[in-house]
Amino acid sequence: MDNAIEPPGSEEPDILKISRHTLHGELVERLRDMIIEGQLPPGSRINEVQLGAKLGVSRTPLREAIKFVASEGLIELVPGRGALIKVLTPRDVQEMLQVVTALETMAAREACRVATAEQIAALRGVHDEMMRCYESGNRLEYYKYNQAIHSGLVRLSGNRFLAEQHEAIQLRMKRIRYLGNAAPDNWRGAVAEHAAMIAALEARDEQALSRAVTKHLDQTWARVQNVI
């Protein structure tokens, strides 16, 4: 039984409908958001007819978007069963966080050495936008800026291969990392850790930034391990 989608014929607000001119990109983004927020829960099967009706699109572009999101590791395409939302085990998450920690601490040290003042200022701007989302309680948009900061920090290293490997893991962990900020105390702690990371980067303090990144990702595991 498909428990992720409303039954056919249910009324949906017009705001859910997707315009055609950016159809693929918007569909991919919408699918990601629905997975992150749990509207499509882990282990559930996507009913293409119901989801297409909900989003106001036909099955062909929806299938292309599903295939794209599957390539990112958020959906599994299972013969005979269709598209299933990926389920991550605690071991999966812990091992991915270990790799992310190694990649981000490596990138952090290099970013302190090679990033320009303009690049660091731009990342500070992303952090400030994230803080505005935190203050307004907009968890989904906060999460997106949060992820942009992690990806941006890695890109500041100038190592494209490192950034590609990091992004591949980031994509797989979207739902899990979003869940980590569900409790107010957890969210507050994550914000403080991000502030420490940005301050260390602005000071170009390699050791302080490496410690801040490691602490943040260690705490990420502590925040998510009981909700997986």
What would you give as the CATH superfamily of the largest domain? GntR ligand-binding domain-like
The proportion of residues forming helix, as a percent range, comes to 55-70%
Largest sheet: 2 strands, antiparallel
CATH class of the largest domain: Mainly Alpha
Largest sheet strand order:
1-2
Provide an overview of this structure.
By secondary structure, the protein is mainly α. It folds into 2 domains: 14-85, Arc Repressor Mutant, subunit A (Orthogonal Bundle); 90-224, GntR ligand-binding domain-like (Four Helix Bundle (Hemerythrin (Met), subunit A), Up-down Bundle). The chain has helices spanning 23-37, 48-55, 59-71, 90-114, 117-136, 139-155, 160-172, 174-179, 184-202, 206-224, and strands at 75-78, 82-85. Strands 1-2 form a two-stranded antiparallel sheet. β1 and β2 (82-85) form a beta hairpin. α1 crosses α3, α4 packs across α6 (139-155) and α6 packs antiparallel against α7 (160-172). The protein starts with 22 loop residues before the first helix and ends with a helix.
Secondary-structure blueprint:
Elements: H1 23-37, H2 48-55, H3 59-71, E1 75-78, E2 82-85, H4 90-114, H5 117-136, H6 139-155, H7 160-172, H8 174-179, H9 184-202, H10 206-224
Antiparallel strand pairs: 1-2
Write a brief structural summary.
The chain is mostly helical and 228 residues long. The protein has helices spanning 23-37, 48-55, 59-71, 90-114, 117-136, 139-155, 160-172, 174-179, 184-202, 206-224, and strands spanning 75-78, 82-85. The model is unreliable at 1-16 (pLDDT under 50).
